[in-house]
Amino acid sequence: MSPYNNAARLNPSNHPLQEGGSGLRTIVVGAGSAGTALVRDLDRTPDFGLLPVGLLDDDPLKAGQLVSGAPVLGTLAELTGLAVEHRAQVVVLAIPGLAHQRVRQLATAAAAAGASVRYLPSFLAALRREVVGSDLRSLDVNRLIGRHEVHVASSDVRAVIEGRRVLVTGAGGSIGSELCRQLHAFGPAELYMLDHDESNLHRLQLDIWGEALLTDDALVIADIRDRPRIQQIFRDLKPEVVFHAAAHKHLPLLERHPSEAVKSNVLGTDNLVEAALATGVERFVLISTDKAADPTSVLGASKRLAELIVQANARDARNLGTGVFSAVRFGNVLGSRGSLLSVLAEQLRSGGPVTVTHPDVTRFFMTIEEAVGLVLEAGRMAHGGEVFVLDMGEPVRIVDLVHNFARQVQLEAEEVEIRYTGLRAGEKLNEALFSEGEERLPTAHARIYATVADSSAGPEDLAGGLTGLYQAAAGNSDAEVRRRLAELLPGYRTPEAQPVPALSAPYPDGF
């Protein structure tokens, strides 16, 4: 058994630096003299804004020890997992003289967990002077999105959450888990966390409450495809606010398995909306994707149908004077599990090459904090039927993001090999936030826009069309699923995979 196993279970909220402290949750890599001095200095200068929650070190003799009041959580190899587990927002590399290759590996490991990285210049060792906060230099992952991060959620969100029974589907995922953490801080009467993966739920409860006895009603194991089970949960728990994050989201996989996309993304949403209407849910927010705008993929089509289900039922709910149903569209979320950033970090850590579909491909990007803030604000602002979208500025060229990331983890241009693989079936060269027929409307938030379905949105017989679609998916008839998706969404067509175009000269790499 590793000597760090027990240390990793330490609750960082118990150590002295956490008492009444505030600042960005920070893991310090290195429990030697530099790391020890750094933790001490950060304790003395809280205005610097970093709050150590623990350290990492490969010396087994330091396992479980407190270093300047902070626990040694584990080894350097465990950085990504421990950064996620302890919700680290910043990782400081405090081992002066660390080999360049090792610095690169640690920086990419931290970035894969969605944490920004700061490091101590190696010349500190030569100068032989004590480490102080001003020696820190920042590696800002947020620069990758090509704009300033938007602080979306307002304090007014508390009025929607406090004292209410709140249910989150897909709670164990990257977005769902961060959503649960922030919801917990708003004081709901109950926070129900639903997922089909019991291990994810166990980790989430341990993270939020510091223990995971698995003996209360907060954790709900269920599959959103199972209509009777979902109806039972809503009858028993009577949630008042629902955030629906559960979904299949990997575009190439869903192109190969369209029946599975329909079962989870469309039927699962339908089941939840039906149960919400039947039990008087006050607010329901669906998490969608920018790929639902003029969809060209099974993922986008399935999410567009989920939006239409929410919008159709929002009209019914308004007429009955019951709940408020709305949706939000995300761009690519940096730091989420399986996102471009995590794949990029792993490819760089292993020495490459980095794979990019096309030299000119662009995407909209947002941070996990922005994504969760958008969901919370949508829950507050919605009147029913809206699809909310964050103003994410200009789309970012993937090649530029790769190079920006590489520079920040101290890689030279010649160290980054990019291999272009060609657009896969269903992929767009450039995404859009709104469909051509949708009107972009301002909201009470300066950086959030909305579109509202008119009476002609969607097919005339949505319910009848969905019945046929569900039957095709239940029979795993992928060809029939595609045909029915096209019937329900006129204009939807999955483009074939496109090879990389021949380049007359080496593509400019932006370094």
UniProtKB/TrEMBL annotation:
Region (Disordered): 1-21
CDD domains per UniProt: UDP_invert_4-6DH_SDR_e
Source domain of life: Bacteria
Coiled-coil region: none
InterPro entries given in the database record: NAD(P)-bd_dom_sf, Polysac_CapD-like, Polysaccharide_Synthase-Rel
Pfam families documented for this protein: CoA_binding_3, Polysacc_synt_2
Residues of the Polysaccharide biosynthesis protein CapD-like domain: 166-450
Family: Belongs to the polysaccharide synthase family.
PANTHER family: POLYSACCHARIDE BIOSYNTHESIS PROTEIN EPSC-RELATED (PTHR43318:SF1), UDP-N-ACETYLGLUCOSAMINE 4,6-DEHYDRATASE (PTHR43318)
Protein name: FlaA1/EpsC-like NDP-sugar epimerase
Organism this protein belongs to: Kitasatospora gansuensis
